[in-house]
Amino acid sequence: MSHAGAQKGSPLTLVLMIASASIGGTLQYGYNLAIMNAPTTFIQSFINETFLERWDVQLEEYQVTLVWTIIVSIFSLGGFAGALIAGPMTIRFGRKKCLLLNNIFLMTAALLALTSRTARSFEMIMISRVLVGINAGISMNVQPMYFGESAPKHLRGAISLSSAVFTAFGVVLGQVVGLREILGSEPCWQYLLASNAIPGLIQLLTLPWFPESPRYLLIDRGDKEACINALRRLRGCEVQSSELDEILQEQAETKGMRASHPWELFTDRSVRWQLISVMIISSAMQLCGNDSIYFYASYVFKEAGIPDDKIQYATIGTGTCEFTACIMCNLLVERKGRRFMLAGGFTLMTFWAVVFTIALSFEHHITWMSYLTMTCVYTYILSFGMGPAGVTGILPTEIFNQAARPAAYMIAGSMMWLNLFVVGMIFPFLVSGLREYCFVPFAAICLLSALYVGLFLPETKGKSLSVIMREFHRLNFKGQENHFEAQTKPQYQLGEVCLSTAL
């Protein structure tokens, strides 16, 4: 291929592509989690008023709480639906176009939320939350895949982890926008729920200017020239032959293979431990109880003894903690590795859950214990951000090949959203039933997750897919070492530049 018609790029292109995809992608997940805290009492009053106007029925407090819980938790069911359709969408439309089309759900949801108050319909809020959930479910699956396939190997973990950084930033942004002084007041709650359209609009205006995933272009589309152009734009220099060789090798390994269906992975012994790992870690990410703090932040801090007028500022601290921790994890993940960050994060969460339980047990006997309980919530979230929050999303990209990757993300996303729904529904009852022992089940889950990661999950830092597959082969086919044939080594040395004439 000659230089004529080749598109030039800059290292800044990759950074801007990450920002564009994330602003309308995983940022929406964190933002839409956080904005539901501020208008709780206002929407509950709206629900009660609506029933009174329509049917002249005054709802009991528990009935209003039930409707509100459904509105909050139905977001998770939307996310589950989004996770299921994300795989087929990425195969049919590609990673970038899938993110762009995803904004249809978001804009429809924003319109419903904006007009719900005028229409006197809390059902419109429910439908809006389902659509926002679908949007988040798609972006939580597609965006890490897009980043993992577009990043150079030595930065793959850090760039994929940026999805978690933007999720945490979305939480902080949602908490700030939800302050009473901004959009968290009674006259403005419908504008708060519809404000998620702004990040989506930014993505629609910017993402079309960036390239598609190079791996998708070559392996799925078979377009080598487009792949090379995309790599050149994303790297800002000529394509290194070692990187192109790795993609070509994966293309050769998956040649003639169609994209896997999720149910096929359950019967494929060659991906057994990859699938088990993704399912366990994706489930643990939600069953650890971290996101429940965002759903019911005010409730947790009230139990911890924080005054009502200070709770909205205390909740901003939770988002800031996770945002800070995700940035730290982003800086450390390529140094310490995925397994260290995951196991370390779950271990620290176990420790702080135990301290939190002890502090809650003595808060009525020792005056300063309420501040320790609040500190434990912050440190718990910090520990979550340091490992599980970001590394979980990287794993399907690194341990599954191109044919199985969309199905793996569908399964991982489904486990995440289903468990988020379950925890969202039972967490208020855990708090009221177990009271000071409400974090004991979460501590047990975190401890078991840390043990699994430490004992069974191979390290993937800086390794090619072929090397990672060999390591999982030892788990999948114990005693059958000859089953997995040696992979062909690259034709070029690492760092050698593949000249345009050779391409």
What this model shows, in words?
The chain is an all-alpha fold. The protein has 2 domains: 12-210, MFS general substrate transporter like domains (Growth Hormone, Chain: A); 261-479, MFS general substrate transporter like domains (Growth Hormone, Chain: A, Up-down Bundle), CATH 1.20.1250.20. It is built from 24 helices and no strands. Helix 6 (103-119) runs antiparallel to helix 10, helix 17 (297-303) packs across helix 18 and helix 18 (311-336) packs parallel to helix 20 (369-386). The longest helix is centred in the N-terminal third of the chain and has 33 residues, at 61-93. The radius of gyration is 23 Å and the shape is globular. The N and C termini lie close together (6 Å). The model is unreliable at 1-6 and 484-503 (pLDDT under 50). Residues 18-461 form the Major facilitator superfamily (MFS) profile domain. Keywords: Cell membrane, Membrane, Sugar transport, Transmembrane, Transmembrane helix, Transport. The chain crosses the membrane at residues 12-31, 66-87, 99-119, 158-177, 189-210, 311-333, 340-362, 368-395, 407-431, 437-457. It is a multi-pass membrane protein. Belongs to the major facilitator superfamily. Sugar transporter (TC 2.A.1.1) family. Glucose transporter subfamily.
**In the CATH scheme, what's the topology name of the largest domain?**
Growth Hormone, Chain: A
**Strand elements, count:** 0
Q: β content, as a range?
A: under 5%
Number of domains: 2
Query: How many helix segments?
Result: 24
The helix/strand order is HHHHHHHHHHHHHHHHHHHHHHHH
Q: Structural class of the secondary structure composition?
A: mainly alpha
The CATH class designation of the largest domain is: Mainly Alpha
CATH architecture of the largest domain: Up-down Bundle
Helix content, binned percent: over 70%
CATH superfamily placement of the largest domain:
MFS general substrate transporter like domains
Q: How is the main sheet built?
A: none
> Uncertain runs with pLDDT below 50, 5 residues or more?
1-6, 484-503
The backbone outline, from C-alpha atoms, is globular
Subcellular location: Cell membrane, Sarcolemma; Cell membrane
Transmembrane segments: 12-31, 66-87, 99-119, 158-177, 189-210, 311-333, 340-362, 368-395, 407-431, 437-457
Organism: Neolamprologus brichardi (Fairy cichlid)
GO molecular function: D-glucose transmembrane transporter activity; fructose transmembrane transporter activity
